[in-house]
Amino acid sequence: MADVPHSNNNHVPVLFSFSVFSRPSSVPLGSGHEVLIQKFLSIYGYQIDIHRKFVIQLFSDEWGQYIDLPKGFVITEKCKLRLVPLQVDMTTLGNLSASTTVFFCCDMQERFRPAIKYFGDIISVGQRLTLGSAQRENVCGVLRFSLSLSPVTAASGARILGIPVIVSEQYPKGLGSTVQEMDLTGAKLVIPKTKFSMVLPEVEVALAEIPGLRSVVLFGVETHVCIQQTALDLIGRGLEVHIVADASSSRSMMDRMFALERLARTGITVTTSEAVLLQLVADKDHPKFKEIQNIIKASAPESGLLSKV
């Protein structure tokens, strides 16, 4: 907030947004396109790929949304601007890299267990991807965690590849905590929520701490509610989203399958846990390939994806 002017008639306060980030600053009165581009570069620097084309958009109170910056626009009053990429680098579209990826585990909670279709299967797949499994025991009123000795625990994808994990819990006071099979030790953030989308201010702060972030691997429940709304919020912030179909479900198979179909049509990648893990290593000679291979030696449960709606 130190960059925001206190009182200067020659400068105008502007909110500069890029991807999932927003930062208040100021520019001289009468600044045009070139000055604004330089300001975006000075604020976000290494996060902007200068080889891509961008457009600056202005938030319009009249229309209630961002519009392309009008020709000849200059800053005359306080406003909100965002920088939007015009084209996607086709060499990276749909690809995953461990250094630019975060995992989102959405609302895998105890109270959902009897209601969600194939819940046991998606927990099993979730363990492969994120933080492994844990066993909880209550000793003299103290809740203690201990890692299980299952092969999944020793070889969960996030632990092997050093990928940050963000976990949400929907109204945990009423719906309980994340299931005991999922070990949350080492998660970058575990956050309670009432909003359906995981994209909360605290989550956006956590994302801003990950340099070069490009992709979110998303899974959990329910596919047609929290998963869908999270995915749409993320792509609206310029991030690629990969939804793990065999680790995401709903109370209704109809809702689940139609949500996956809708999301695929918006440009979101609907994929499987094995595809994600192998994309992240990409090469048999990757130093972690053997450990990832140990995870997928036994096929993941199909979690009802091959059954009829």
TrEMBL record:
Residues folding into a coiled coil are none
Origin, by domain of life? Eukaryota
The residues covered by the Isochorismatase-like domain are 103-274
Annotated family: Belongs to the isochorismatase family.
PANTHER family, sorted: HYDROLASE (PTHR14119), ISOCHORISMATASE DOMAIN-CONTAINING PROTEIN 1 (PTHR14119:SF17)
Q: What is this protein called?
A: Isochorismatase domain-containing protein 1
